[in-house]
Amino acid sequence: MNVTNENRKFAVLIDADNAQASAIEKILSEIARYGTVTSKRCYGDWTGPQLSSWKETLLRFAIQPMQQFAYTKGKNATDSAMIIDAMDLLYTGNFDGFCIVSSDSDFTKLVTRLRESGLEVMGFGRRTTPEPFRVACNKFTFTEILLNSSEEESFSENRNLQNIISVNVSNDFNSCKTTDFKPPSKDIIESQQERELIPLLKEAIESQQDAVGFANLANVGSFIQRIKPDFDPRNYGGTNKKLGDLVKKLTFLESRLNNGAIYIRFTEPKKLE
User: Fold this and answer.
1) Quick count: other Cβ atoms within 10 Å of Cβ 234?
2) 209 φ, ψ to 5°?
3) Cα separation, 261 vs 106, whole angstroms
4) What is the pLDDT of residues 40-62, one digit of tens each?
5) CATH classification at residue 211
6) SS3 143
7) What pTM, to 2 d.p., does this model score?
8) Statement to judge: residues 137 and 253 lie in one domain
9) Which has the closest alpha carbon to 137: 160, 106, 115, 165?
10) How many other CB atoms are there within 10 angstroms of residue 233's CB atom?
């Protein structure tokens, strides 16, 4: 029996040491696209002041705080507690999937184990999240694309690209000055995004194309998600999660409508210097 999105049950496990309270609302809204959250737990040492910013968020979204003392300095006991609880929840058989909110690659093995049991795993973390953790998930979403706050802007690749400055520091470290830097044009940024998209889309289309080179857009999207779990149109200049809206902006693709479905074909891409 097929399980609809409305009936799919997810457990959300949050690593408070490696996640942001400001991102939780957007993360929960994103998860709601795929199913219902029936368990929300957040792990950390709540006896210290370092997690004080989480209090309002825990109360607002009815997230259960899970206390884990830092027994030894420099050792992350929180990770172990999350992993143990995840396995306990797995064996209840009450969930169709897990959502791991962290930028810590230590959860890579956990994600692999959950997927081996046939469950879907979605990950949420910053762009700095190590690749092994990202690709282990069925789907991984960067928190930067969910937020527009100043807290996240400092982690935005485009913002970093547009705000690079050259700093000259004197030998005595008593003075420094900045030199003028002209941000790259929007066309240059889009070209860099296209450099990443062209081989990815080409591989996806060629795996699904018909005799004249057209491939069903939905199948292309599914293929990309399997080989690149952290793919999201918003990472490449798209305004939303719909691949179709991004495709309309790409000059190296042509599309056609057939029986209500969109088909795309790779045309000769413009040369990017």
Assistant:
1) 16
2) -70, 155
3) 41
4) 999 998 888 888 889 999 999 99
5) 3.30.420.610
6) helix
7) 0.66
8) no
9) 115
10) 21
